[in-house]
Each structure stands twice: as C-alpha cells, then as structure tokens.
Amino acid sequence: MESDVQYRFDRMTPLTWAFGALIALLGVLGVYMMAVHTRNYPLLTVFLYSIPSNCAIAIFPHEPVLVLYGKTVNLWKLTAVATLGTILAAYLDYKFFSPLLNLSYSAKYKSHRYYQNAHNWFYKIPFISLVVAGFSPIPFYPFKFMVYASKYPLWKYLSAVAVGRFPRYLYLSALGYLFQIPNWIIFGSFICMFLMVYYKKIISWIKKGFVLLSRFARGEKIRTGDRMSKNITLPMALGIAARTAKNIIIKRPICIALEVTHNCTANCRHCDKGPKVEDFQKTPEEYARICEELSPAIIQIAGGEPLLREDLPDIVRALHRRNRPPYLVIVTNASLLTKEKYLELREAGVRQFSISLDFPDERHDQFRRIPGLFKRLEGLVPGLLSLGNGDITLNTCITRDNYPYIKDVARLATKWGAKLNFSSYTDLRTHNDSFNLRHPEDTSRLSAIIDDMYRSSNGDYRSVMTSEKVLRRYNNFYEVGRNIPDCKTGEKFLIVNPDGRLTPCAMFIDERYDSHEELMEKFATNNACGGCYISIRANTEKPVWELLADNLRALRLSASDN
Ligand code: SF4
Question: Is 118 in the pocket of ligand 1 (CB under 6 A)?
Fold first, then answer.
C-alpha cells in the first residue's frame, strides 16, 4: 500500500488535462468515423473507434465491430490495428485517470475495506488477472480502476492489455470471417449490448417522455425551466455558467459581496461589525454601474445587515436582469426579515436568501447577541419555504464552539426544508483565537462528523449544499495551521463597500481601491496572505471541473425538491 500513500497528493496538471482532452477528441473522431465512414477507411476507423469503445468511460461496444470488419478485412491487420488502438486508449486513460484517482481528496476511498480487499486480491497475480480479464468476457472496468488507483506500472499494464486483447480480437474477427454473420445480426447484437448497459437510463427517459406527453395532452404548460429549481431558470443557469467561464478566462471576479451598509442589528461574536458606524452610502444606480463594470456571475448583497437600508428593494431592482446574471443573493441575519419584505425583495429580483444560523437552538441568540432570534427563525423560515420557492439557504460559520453540533443544524435545515451552506471561521476580524479549531482532537472529531454526514444514506443531511471536498478543506485549513496560500482575492472575488470603493476581502476592509485594475495591481498581485478559508474563497477558488460538478449537484438538489 506504500504506493497509494505516495500518490495521494497527485495534481491535475495542464498535461493531465491535455490527455483527458485527447481522449475526448479521439473518442468523438472514432464515433464519427464509425458512423460516417464505416466502409471507406476500415483500418483507420477500427483504430479510432477503439478509443471510445475501450477507454475507461467507454460507452460503445467493441465486439460487434470486429465481427463486422472480420468479414471483409485481413484478419491479422484488423487484429493488430484494433489492439494498437486499445493500447493507445489504455495509455491515455492511465495518464488522465491515475492522477485523478489519486488527488488528495479523491483518494479517501483507499481507506475503505472494499478497496483494500480488492487491492490485495488484484496484487496476488496482477499481470495474469489483467490478461485473463482482457481476453475473457469478464468486465474489464474493475481491473482498470485498480490499475489507475494503485498506479500499477504503465509498461506492465500496456503489455497485459496487448497480450489479453490480441487473441480476443483475432477470435472475434475470425468469427466474422468464418461464419459471414449477416449484418442485421451484428447490428442487433450491437444494440442488445448497448441496451444491456443503458436499459435503466433508457427506461427512465421513456417514462419522463410519457409524463411530459401526458401533461401536454392535458393542456399543461411545459416550460424549459420546469425541471430547474424555482429560484433559477434554465436561461439563468446557462447565463451564470457562461459568465463564470468568461470571467475565469479574463480574470474577473465570479462572485462579489456588495456590502450596502456596515451597520448591523446584531453584534456577532465572530464578526467586527455591529457597533454603529457612519456609512458613506451610494445610490442604487451607482451600485448598479459599479457592478455592471465588474460583471460578476453572482452578487451577494450583504453588510452589516442589508435590510437596514430602506432602499434595498431599489438596489435589487437596479442590479436585477431578468433571466440573466448576476444571480442575486441577500445575506442576512433575518432579524428584520418578514414575509412582506421577503416577497418584495423576491419580486425585485432576489433569487436566494442566505440566513445565518450557527446553532440548532437558542445558543444562536447568544452567538449573534440578538435575544429571541432563533425562535423568530423557527417561525419565519418554514413559513417562507412553504411558499414553494426553495430559495432559503441557511449559513453556518463553523467555529470551535459549534462544530460538534453541525449535524444537528443540518438535520434542522432538512426538517425546515431549507438548504445549508457552511463557512469557516477566521480570527482576522476579531483576533479572537478561542473560536479556532486549535487542537488536533478538534479537527479529527470534525473529520469524523464529516464522514458521518456524507456517508449517511437516511436523508437527514440532504439539506447540505457544501460539497464534502470543501468541508474537508475547511478542516484542512486548521490542520495545516490556518494558512492556505495562493489566495485569489480580486481575481475570483472581492468586496464593494457601502461607499462604492473596492476591498479585496472583509479582513482588509481599510484597503480601498477605485477600480478592479487598481486593486489587482496594488493588492492582489502581491498578496501573500492565506490566513482565512471563508466560504466565498473556498467556493470561487475551486478548479473548473469541480465548480461545474458542484453547481450541477446544487441544481439537481434544488430541482429534486420541486
Ligand atoms: S486569505 Fe485571502 S480572503 Fe482570506 S484574509 Fe487573506 S486575502 Fe483575505
């Protein structure tokens, strides 16, 4: 198992991604050749088709194709070309999937006893196992997985693929040559193999098709946004994805926090806002102009407590673009939120209400220093959610005081029908070290809590929107001594202050700049700070593929509630 430990810190380098892209490109080319040039270039077609039918995520059967071409093409050439194509697929797979399966956060499966048992069995006779699985009808996927996960030597793997696949391909080609099997039988077997693998998916598509047809027949209106969460339409989701991609490329923030006031109704124990301050506030139109220039995919309208501003609905209206980004989120402690205010803000364009909740009971009042706040939320949140918009997310900042209770908070959120997002505490605002997870026993206990939440299958924690990887990174932030370097403030996120000037993050509130360019030049490019790992940082600094996967998951969770 030594090799497993060694590779736990693999990285996805640009070269790794290039291998992934090459698999996709050759895969598409292989399918194109098979569909369009079936007869024109048989050897080239078989070679290229070996990629989509043999790579780790192959979705097409290989066997009927060899039987088909065996009828007309020289057997030895055909077998050699198909074997070479398969070796190429195995090589590309190895280069892409081995690092992917050995990333520090994806390699957790290695501690599972199923993996360890499989690993022990495989390594009794690895080469022979691969050859036998390559030759016989035994599914090859589990063996591939073991090879990539344990980084079985590449040359041995490719040799085993060649030794196992060559006789198998020769035998299949000979079958076509000797029996001249009619094309309709070969084509039928191709379809049967396809159906054997995908029958469940196909049945579910057919069912969905019937449901839509019956709704159509009953005269119900079917919109493209029907299967999306009610707080996000399909055009909006696509717009956010496109804006995010564009901003990543041109290095503009994905998400900004528009702090419309620094006054607050609370005096939270983890935050430096609360005492009354004099704000130099901008008008809704001025905020709209600033945000237009920054052009983020998401705007969190925050504070202080944003509901203290009477012109908040006007601010929202000024920022709102129908069915287009930015996606507007209000971050509030909800002490001033009422059903009427909620409806007004929703009507104005708010698509998500992010409400703070640090404890699953009255301890929340002590933490926020607002008596009766928890009782208020207990009545308000389920009431708002009963309106059916699915747009309330609870927000829990993990501290040393509340981490033992985050499962209770998650259960409560599930009971209320809300979503739950976690953030992690930083002492950079208050310099209060007592809320940090300072001791190894804290982080190992939090790790066990995370295990429980994400391994649970009883639905108690389905409210949790924060991905397991992000939650583990919060914990890792403490494990490594509260320093995660390479902060991307300015590039991925920033803050707009009440006076309209820009600040890199809430911990450097006195660093104020008049433009994004100035902030990047004078702060972000030389920023060596890694002293926090708050939610906005953790969620905007994710690698692109993780960002995509997490957002799709969030959409799926939201849609499944409707
Ligand atoms: S790590 Fe980045 S976001 Fe956090 S305090 Fe430092 S500069 Fe601000």
Answer: no
